[in-house]
Design brief:
The structure holds two protein chains of two kinds. By secondary structure, chain A is mainly α. Chain A contains 22 helices and seven strands. The mean pLDDT of chain A is 95. In chain B, α1 runs parallel beside α10, α6 runs antiparallel to α8 and α8 runs antiparallel to α10. Classes of the chains: A mainly alpha, B mainly alpha. The structure holds protoporphyrin IX containing FE and iron/sulfur cluster (2 copies).
């Protein structure tokens, strides 16, 4: 989509809650997955006959498997506390992007088919009764709304923080997407990517030779830069650490600078490590489509790689939802990891490793090398609200900031209600990082852009650091729409890479 | 008179059965359904004790709601805690002799009714006036508030304006509970009060009032953050693994 087509929301000094514009974002949603992409994931190729009944049945299955869904669909009191908490609502003004309204799209069908009054009124054909309890028949219009609006949720969990019962719209979006895929209406972007992981090993479809090439190139770059031979090994049996990182780290900017940072940290600490060509992907889009089975299948690749390579530890690179799946789900999906070294948590985040080494005084920094930047930090949703680092609650906020501060002289946080567990999504998470959703992505970035603008004006911030591959790609794309430079976004380990003085490195 | 008494006694039994069986079944269903993944909203407590504190802060203080919206919190909290006091005060109609602390809170419970009604009116006005909340409100959202308002106001009428025969009412309830029916006083306001209360009890298990048990079962609030230390596996997921291993 051309830049000119997108109506960019206006930035204001103080964020205001917009006046509702019903149907502002009504549409067909992102591209639908073609048959091939559906079938490799175990879904029907196209919309099945009697999909209405099938969808209702699938919802029933999920209700019996997931307590969250049952409790969340029953408990909402329509109090409205979440209505102004979603960045998509703030950026688009579409009322169906209010978290509770998004939930209600599924809840209306739940009420109709899976509660006693809904069944009763439905059987009697009493429309007034169905209206009274907010129940609706499963039909084409409902499915269209599902497909459109459940793909306008980045599963960021911000609404869940503010709901008195912790109702998590992300969980509901995942369930809805799983239902849609199971009746034959999956999303192209996510399903195509998962297919590539199964076929080739990573989201980007980079085969092993290409990976080796890239890594060699990076080794040369580092050596040219520092005079020190730092290795980026792949498929090396017997290494201590298996590094799992999002495949964007292999070539996208600024991701790749982060990868060089990890390599330097391992090198300097004398920790032997390796990547795996079989599990060359940290991301796990199985979560975005709400599929336990696919999420598990992708996770099991990591287990297999760790066993095959005989490593002792698993470490994850900078990626938000990958870290959620790793931290919160990996043990469940692919554990137990009793074959790894019990001295270390499984898995660890690269920031935990770097932070630990900083604490031990094992890394030497020349902070002035980052003096051309004044930094702020974007908490990625999945790290902030769905995982942890270190051993205290909230470590996920402290550790990345400490890592940044160890490598930089100038750091300022954005407003308190836009960071930590109240952080705003970049606008591209949850399987929405696709060009066919560009309009939504630009609008959804508004609250973050506003907060960024404030620190730019108040403190002269020049760069924003992030620890998520999706955030980095999304910001690179949308920053220009808001009049910022696209290289304003940097990897946390890029800062480390800049400032770390390797043993034997010529000063210069 | 006996017709009225019989009707209300049966209505009372019916409401109690629906409430207890309905909510009981829901709780059974929540408890039986596994939460297969660790999904606490972070930062989350690292221990069971921490989780108990977290849930308590939500139930007693409405902590998350406080963070998100001070007006809703103010009216909501006022309504709920007044409701709690009022309910406790009502115990005296169902027990004999009346326990000491129930006697002690009588005056508080009596005046809490005002706070309850003010809270409800605040919540109702907000539904009409705030565009976003008007958008999400369904007829049942208004009706429940109106039902509670009718309950509260008819109750206050009896406390402060037209008193009913409390002694006889207590005889009715104690009688109904021991299956030895006694006449019910026939004041219209009392009958309105009882009708609306029984209706509320009946809709409880089939409406959003399920938030009361729901809050204790919400995985985003009641899980311990220990996924790296302890493997969390749902029974159906374990089956899945076993089936694959074969
Ligand atoms: C464990 C006990 C309970 C807790 C923690 C709880 C908590 C809450 C919270 C946090 C809200 C949202 C804020 C608000 O709108 O007031 C709410 C709403 C509500 N609660 Fe409760 N509640 C409990 C029990 C009850 C009971 C027993 C009733 C009624 C008989 C009740 C009736 C309502 C109603 C009607 C609303 C919606 C108010 C509106 O329309 O905005 N709650 N509750
Ligand atoms: S999870 Fe995030 S994107 Fe989805 S409704 Fe909630 S706030 Fe919006
Ligand atoms: S905050 Fe929670 S209970 Fe209130 S409307 Fe939103 S989802 Fe429903």
């Amino acid at each position: 989509m051309a830049k000119a087509d997108i109506e960019i929301p206006e930035m204001r000094e103080y964020p205001v809650i917009p006046i509702l514009k019903p149907d502002a974002m009504k549409g067909d949603g992102p591209f639908v997955a073609k048959a091939d992409f559906q079938t490799v994931l175990g879904y029907p190729g196209e919309l099945v006959d009697n999909w209405e009944t099938k969808a209702v049945e699938k919802l029933g299955d999920l209700l019996s498997c997931f307590r969250s869904l049952r409790v969340y669909l029953d408990s909402c009191v329509h109090c409205g506390a979440c209505t102004d908490k979603c960045h998509y609502m703030l950026g688009t003004s579409d009322p169906k992007n209010m978290p509770v309204a998004r939930q209600d799209l599924l809840r209306q069908v739940y009420r109709r088919y899976h509660t006693l009054p809904g069944k009763f009124f439905g059987k009697m054909g009493w429309q007034w009764g169905l209206d009274l309890i907010g129940a609706k028949e499963m039909d084409k219009a409902v499915l269209d709304d599902w497909y459109n609006y459940y793909h306008q949720c980045s599963q960021c969990r911000r609404c869940s923080v503010f709901c008195p019962y912790g109702i998590d719209t992300a969980d509901i979006s995942m369930a809805a997407r799983e239902i849609m895929a199971s009746i034959g209406k999956g999303q192209k972007y996510c399903n195509e990517i998962i297919g590539k992981v199964y076929r080739i090993g990573n989201n980007l479809g980079l085969p092993e030779p290409a990976l080796r090439d890239t890594l060699e190139g990076l080794e040369e770059d580092i050596e040219a830069d520092t005079g020190v031979a730092v290795r980026l090994p792949i498929d090396e049996k017997g290494a201590e650490v298996l590094l799992i990182t999002p495949s964007a780290d292999f070539f996208a900017e600024p991701h790749v600078d982060g990868l060089m940072g990890y390599a330097k940290v391992f090198h300097e600490a004398g920790i032997s490590w390796t990547l795996s060509s079989y599990a060359s992907e940290g991301a796990n889009f199985g979560m975005f489509i709400g599929s336990y089975e696919n999420m598990r299948k992708i996770s099991l690749r990591i287990r297999k790689a760790a066993l095959d390579l005989g490593v002792k530890r698993i470490v994850f690179g900078e990626c938000g939802h990958a870290w959620r799946v790793a931290y919160s789900f990996l043990n469940t999906l692919a554990g137990p990891f009793d074959f790894l070294d019990p001295k270390y948590p499984v898995p660890q985040h690269i920031c935990e490793i770097t932070y630990g080494l900083i604490q031990e005084g094992k890394l030497n920094f020349d902070k002035s090398r980052n003096d051309d930047m004044v930094l702020t930090f974007h908490d990625s949703c999945n790290v902030a609200r769905a995982s942890r680092m270190g051993n205290v609650p909230g470590g996920q906020f402290i550790i990345p900031r400490e890592v940044i501060k160890a490598a930089c002289n100038h750091f300022y946080d954005m407003d308190a209600d836009t960071i930590h567990d109240q952080t705003f999504c970049c606008g591209g998470g949850g399987g929405l990082l696709t060009d066919d959703l560009m309009d939504l992505r630009v609008k959804g970035a508004l609250p973050r852009m506003q907060a960024l603008k404030n620190v730019v004006e108040e403190h002269g911030v020049t760069h924003m650091a992030a620890i998520c591959a999706i955030c980095k790609s999304q910001f690179t794309k949308v920053l220009p729409y808001y009049g910022f430079n696209m290289d304003k976004i940097v990897s946390v380990h890029q800062l480390i890479s800049n400032a770390l003085i390797l043993t034997g490195q010529e000063e210069g | 008179m006996w017709f009225l008494t019989g009707f209300y006694a049966l209505f009372f039994y019916f409401a109690i059965i629906v409430l207890v069986a309905g909510v009981g079944y829901k709780i059974y269903e929540y408890a039986r359904t596994p939460a297969p993944l660790k999904v606490p909203t972070m930062p989350a407590p690292l221990t069971r004790g921490g989780v108990v504190l977290r849930i308590l802060s939500e139930v007693v203080l409405f902590r998350s709601l406080f963070r998100s919206n001070k007006w809703i919190w103010l009216f909501g909290w006022m309504f709920h805690f007044a409701l709690l006091l009022v309910l406790l005060r009502h115990l005296r109609y169902f027990i004999d002799p009346v326990w000491g602390w129930v006697a002690l809170i009588q005056p508080f419970g009596k005046y809490a009714a005002f706070a309850m009604v003010i809270g409800l009116i605040g919540l109702l006005v907000r539904r009409f006036t705030v565009e976003r909340i008007r958008y999400i409100s369904t007829p049942s959202d208004y009706l429940i508030l109106v039902l509670l308002l009718v309950i509260g106001m008819s109750g206050m009428m009896m406390s402060f304006v037209v008193h009913t025969d409390i002694i006889q009412l207590k005889a009715f309830f104690l009688g109904a509970m021991s299956f030895n029916w006694q006449l019910i006083p026939s004041d219209p306001i009392l009958l309105l009060h009882l009708t609306t209360v029984f209706l509320l009890m009946i809709v409880f298990p089939y409406s959003k009032l399920l938030h009361a048990p729901g809050i204790f079962f919400s995985p985003s609030r009641n899980q311990v953050d220990n996924s790296r230390e302890k493997r969390h596996l749902a029974p159906w997921a374990a089956e899945l693994e076993k089936a694959e291993a074969k």
